[in-house]
Design brief:
The complex is a heterodimer of chains A (about 110) and B (about 110).
Chain A lengths: L2 E4 L3 E5 L4 E8 L5 E7 L6 E7 L4 E4 L2 E6 L4 E6 L8 E9 L2 E4 L3 E6 L1
Parallel strand pairs in A: 2-11
Antiparallel strand pairs in A: 1-3, 3-8, 4-5, 4-9, 6-7, 7-8, 9-10, 9-11
Chain B lengths: L4 E3 L2 E4 L5 E6 L6 E8 L3 E9 L2 E4 L8 E7 L2 E6 L8 E8 L8 E2 L3 E5 L1
Parallel strand pairs in B: 2-11
Antiparallel strand pairs in B: 1-3, 3-8, 4-5, 4-9, 5-6, 7-8, 9-10, 9-11
The chains are: A mainly beta (about 110), B mainly beta (about 110).
Chain lengths: ~110, ~110
């Protein structure tokens, strides 16, 4: 069956460090993978989209990698700030729909 | 742009009552999605529309749930009769091209069925 796993439900890091979040999947062949941020009491907000033929995508302090052989995406936040604290969701495209992982709650400690 | 608008933001109802959730997508977006989020099951797709036509409703949990999109600027999700296990946050999202582009989510409706 199809499965999406995001590493550890919660991740705590020190301000200024790089946060690395993992999204692993099985039994999918997505053409696209997306990352979203969700703050408490709000809807998810789109961050980045990466296509299957792209190895890496960057946007300001954010970087996403997509390895279709390993069936894994890594999401990096460099020079992390307390304002980056939120839940981050990966989402895989399949049949023009998105299936979301359960999310990783990131806390950046000052 | 006002973004995706959902109403009500909070709904508390008793078991057996009918509940109607409303959504106004972003103008120009031709895809509309209804999701449900719970701690146990995460964010689940219930149904999505393309150009006001329901395309996939396989995520709708049972016949008590129904969704309509009478025009490009309005959609409803109805639960009749409601049950306590329907308690969740319901999100509406819209996009220009389904999963091919980013989805814009509304603020959600927190439903509590007692």
């Amino acid at each position: 069956s199809q499965k999406i796993e995001q590493n550890s439900e919660a991740l705590n890091i020190q301000e200024g460090k790089t946060a690395t979040l993992t999204c692993n999947y099985t039994n999918y062949s997505p053409a696209y993978l997306q990352w979203y941020r969700q703050d408490p009491g709000r809807g998810p907000v789109f961050l980045l989209l990466i296509r299957e033929n792209e190895k890496e995508k960057r946007k300001e302090r954010l970087k996403v990698t997509f390895d279709t052989t390993l069936k894994q995406s890594l999401f990096h936040i460099t020079a992390s700030q307390p304002a980056d604290s939120a839940t981050y969701l990966c989402a895989l495209e399949s049949a023009r729909q998105l299936t979301f992982g359960s999310g990783t709650q990131l806390t950046v400690l000052p | 742009d006002a973004g995706v608008i959902q109403s009500p933001r909070h709904e508390v109802t008793e078991m057996g009552q009918e509940v109607t959730l409303r959504c106004k997508p972003i103008s120009g977006h031709d895809y509309l999605f209804w999701y449900r989020q719970t701690m146990m099951r995460g964010l689940e797709l219930l149904i999505y529309f393309n150009n006001n036509v329901p395309i996939d409703d396989s995520g709708m949990p049972e016949d008590r749930f129904s969704a309509k999109m009478p025009n490009a600027s309005f959609s409803t999700l109805k639960i009749q009769p409601s049950e306590p296990r329907d308690s969740a946050v319901y999100f509406c999202a819209s996009s220009r091209a389904g999963g091919l582009y980013e989805q814009y989510f509304g603020p959600g409706t927190r439903l509590t069925v007692t």
